[in-house]
Sequence to fold (742 residues):
Amino acid sequence: MMNRPVEGTRRKSGIKRLRKLRTAIVEKGLDVLLISQPENLRYLSGFTGSSGWLLISGQNAILATDFRYVEQAKGESPDFEIIQTKQELRDWLPGLASDSGWHKLGFESNYISYGGYHKLSKAIKTKPVNLELVPTTGIVEQLRSIKETEELGFITKAVALTDAAFEQARAIIRPGITEREAAWEIEKFLRQERSEGMPFEIIVASGPNSALPHARPTEKIIQSGEPVLIDMGAKINGYCSDFSRTLLLGETDKSLQEIYNIVLKAQTAAIEKAESGMDASQVDQLARSVIEQAGYGDAFGHGLGHGVGLAVHEFPALGPSSSDSLADGMVFTIEPGIYLAGRGGVRIEDMVVLENGKAKVLTKAKRDLLF
Amino acid sequence: MMNRPVEGTRRKSGIKRLRKLRTAIVEKGLDVLLISQPENLRYLSGFTGSSGWLLISGQNAILATDFRYVEQAKGESPDFEIIQTKQELRDWLPGLASDSGWHKLGFESNYISYGGYHKLSKAIKTKPVNLELVPTTGIVEQLRSIKETEELGFITKAVALTDAAFEQARAIIRPGITEREAAWEIEKFLRQERSEGMPFEIIVASGPNSALPHARPTEKIIQSGEPVLIDMGAKINGYCSDFSRTLLLGETDKSLQEIYNIVLKAQTAAIEKAESGMDASQVDQLARSVIEQAGYGDAFGHGLGHGVGLAVHEFPALGPSSSDSLADGMVFTIEPGIYLAGRGGVRIEDMVVLENGKAKVLTKAKRDLLF
Fold:
């Protein structure tokens, strides 16, 4: 019973999403769009299985999947026509296209392998089918980047969960515990509080390990005086959060505290000055210039942030070479960092949503220097 | 200190693997092979980061990765030349190929997207580079399919861990517990016993849910008289196990017990009659014919099994349309199933290794009808 209102909203928003997608398909001159990217599938149809395709045309909304997922598809995607197919596109797509009168089929060029494309293309050539394969990118991702109210609600819950987990982490992380033990305690908390798995492996990186932006928890024992970088996410109703803080345990090096304050200043600049309508690369530059001016430009080797939703990394990308631009309804991270090989690193990551032209911070955990 | 012997063995086996790969590269007429599939990367170099490429030629063994993973790569892949690159191949590969005198570059066609290939191909055309891109499949996967002694040791440990977890599961799974709670208890056990994450999401599927071959644990309360299908894996030193059993709780339907016995008979036939040198499809048929003769052919909609190693699904594939053939040293699952929509399903899955021409079962858990 409890799930009904959500279900009703989902079906209504599903219909709205399909309508927007069909407009985009017509604009691109396509008869049909083949969708294989898992979060795009889920966004449009509700289907959460790990193997399947959508085919969306003006008339059709088809979910094709194999034996293993047919029952699940019927339950999760009541508004779609479910067809059971073999696992290789070439075995069934040319026939379906011919029966349906499709001649221009768009596909997601970043989510079909070179090999898969060539098998399909070859199969088409051997059949009496007039079907052109048209590479596309980002059509559904663009729709996904602007969050609906319900989506923002799930994201806000996921953010609250990582905030709560950080309070746990602060209590747990003391000199003497290993990185692995700390990460596992955090994960247990998140999972017991109903996070649907982990969007990515939790990072607890101490001392020199914190200089590896994508460190994995090791058996290293956390020592007093070390920076401890924590990066974690939660997932609620499919929607992710992403969160980082760096603790400076006990008496740390003055230079680490200085770095911490530079990163915090860079993050604050980006949060305060980000506006809808800006290029994503401009927002990156707002933070990057603070770090560059402090002389640490080379030590900030990744982009400022990324969109978060059904995927933990999605549109928009906030980096120096991004061509995305920002709009109200987008949810993304702002996470500058400074990493000094052999010594340690600091990253501070919040999630924000653009509302009324400005960035509203979703993350509630304190950003001050923490001991 | 404890890690040194393993480290030494790994480096020696790494050199042997590279030697075999270079022979294959020469046989295919390539100057260099570009490797992007994550387990192939790890197998050859030890690198476990989530973004990177290997370039293996007669002279070179290069690991290219971006800023985030350079420090990790230096630690994990001491025998490789580490180069720091941008994240897109097109930005650096044409120049490196030109400098290195490579003209025929093989790439893994199932692990490069259509879009990525085209960007690279376009970049090559705009530069004064004489470089041909040659699609390849399965070169490293073939090497990986034959396990070395050390690899078999890790796999055996992972199998022992799922065996132990099944003993826990039998104690935990009683009428009244939800699927989700049971799956989480099993996961906690596996993780606390040092499984490196979960190779796939644990399945605990009861009653009608057990008819979904890839069910996810739900809030459904497990009832007496229901089949409960458990499918789980563990990971030790990167190597996976894969394990399924179906419990029949309390007084179950006679027809379910009948199905159980058919699946068991099918599995036993495949285990006893599998031989090195056979086509993988023949072994599938050994089990499938038992199920077909019992009248349930349509209810066994997946292949009999798959190789297991660094990936939980790898070479060989054991299915009706597989073209793989079996050889000593291969490790794979044998997992027939019968699934009746709305009623329930049974799957029994063991892991075996081919030794001296015959299948040796690695899984120790009982296969009898369990209540």
Notes: Chain A has two domains: 4-144, 146-361.
